[in-house]
Structure formats: C-alpha cells, structure tokens
Design goal:
The protein has 250 residues and is of the alpha/beta class. It is built from nine helices and ten strands.
Length: 250
C-alpha cells in the first residue's frame, strides 16, 4: 500500500476512523485521519510523541468529540450510539486511572458492577481476567503498592472484564521493564485470537512483536498504512520511521 493511501473502509472492519479532525482554536491536533482495523487483527498505531495518537483514540472511544468526521466501533457511530458501542469496547488509556486504595479484586468488582455484571457472571468474569492477566498473586494487595507492570495488567483486566469484541490500548507497554513488556505482549497476542485490537505505540519493536498492520501518524496526519513488512521494506523500520516522521523524536 502506498504512503498517504486512504482505502475505503472494509465491511468487516470493527474500528473505523473516517476523516477525523480535531481543532483547538488555531491548533490542529489531527486532520482528516482515516483508517480501519479488520476483525480479529492487531493494528499498531505508530508515531512520535505528540503525533495525535491519543487524541484519535479518545475520539474512537467516545471520550472526545471530533471537530469533524466519524468514529465507528463495530459499525456503530460513537457520536450517536456511544452507549451501545461502549458495550463492545474495552479501553486502556495511557497511564489509566486506578483507585489506588482499592485492591485489584475490589476495583475490578466495582468495574463489573458499573457495567451491569453481577452474581455468577461477575464471579466468572473476575476469575477469567485474574487468570488471563496474571494478577491472582496481588488480588488482595492495595493497588498503590503494586509495580507499574502489575498496574498495567490490572488496567488491562478492567478493559477485558466484559469480554468486548474490540480493544483500544494506548501505550500499554510504556515505562515497563523488559520482563513486564514481554508479559504484556504475550497477553495482547493471546487476546488477538478472539478480539480486534488497536494498539498505539512509539516503540518500533512493538510493531514486529504484535502487529498485523500499521497506521503511522505524524503532525496529526496519516503518513502510512500497510503491513509491517511494507513499512520496513528496503530501508528497515527505523529508517523508514524517521523518514515518514521527518526525524521527529519519538
């Protein structure tokens, strides 16, 4: 796929950004951002810091309204059908907020109750995420005493508690040590077997480690869409990244 290409949205796409723009006065956060994420795939949303990744993801999850354009989750317009779309969506924001005086068990029970899960269904969901996210050993420990790696896993457990079809993860490995990064990568790859995932990062190694496709953004505009091999062809991924981002520091 060529640079700047904006192909038509595939019918099976579960995440769709359609000509999204966001302006703050004279400042342009993103402009005409268009891409789609096919079902049962992992797309890396790549770009340097300040490129517009978090803004785009907040619009896709309904936390921000776009100045123009449409965000869709499983075909549902996030502006018109936000509540229904949110039932199909799990979101891990960058530095996601946690109630640090609560334990993971109490926090996740609260998150389940907020989503309307109760009784045996809630117990089953808690057992599932405790196992999948490997937080059993800290289940009764205050979140404030957990390492950043465990906090990320608790945040990810919150995102998948209601077993959503779609996951949007904003910098899930940022600030983690190599062992913690490996655990999160394994979790994402396991979740990708049954979910559609958009994963933002500025870490180039994440692309080959986890992604089927890449969307690269810089200065609020999409600069590339395609496969990791297409991105790295000829020059290698690092050189290609620098070329497409005009040398902007990641």
């Amino acid at each position: 796929m060529t640079d700047h290409a904006q192909p038509p949205v595939a019918p099976q796409a579960l995440i769709q950004a359609e000509a999204l723009s966001k302006y703050y006065g004279d400042f342009t956060a993103i402009e005409n951002v268009t891409f789609s994420v096919p079902a049962s795939s992992v797309t890396a949303f790549l770009g340097p810091n300040g490129a517009g990744k978090s803004t785009t993801m907040k619009i896709l999850t309904g936390f921000l309204a776009p100045s123009s354009g449409t965000a869709r989750i499983a075909g549902l317009d996030m502006d018109k059908d936000r509540i229904e779309a949110s039932r199909l969506l799990g979101y891990l924001p960058e530095n996601g907020p946690l109630y640090t005086d609560m334990t993971p068990g109490a926090y996740l029970s609260y998150c389940g109750a907020v989503r309307g899960i109760s009784g045996g269904a809630l117990r089953d969901a808690l057992d599932r995420v405790a196992h999948d996210c490997r937080v059993e050993e800290v289940w009764h420990k205050p979140i404030r005493k957990l390492s950043k790696g465990f906090r990320q896993r608790v945040g990810l457990a919150q995102a998948i508690l209601h077993d959503p079809k779609v996951l949007i993860l904003d910098e899930p490995t940022s600030g983690l040590d190599p062992n913690q990064i490996a655990l999160v990568r394994d979790l994402v790859k396991s979740l990708a077997k049954s979910k559609t995932i958009l994963l933002s990062t500025h870490i180039l190694q994440e692309v080959d480690a986890m992604a089927d496709r890449v969307v690269l953004i810089c200065d609020g505009k999409v600069q590339f869409q395609g496969t990791p091999s297409e991105l790295s062809a000829d020059k290698g991924i690092e050189a290609r990244f620098r070329e497409l981002t005009k040398g902007v520091a990641a």
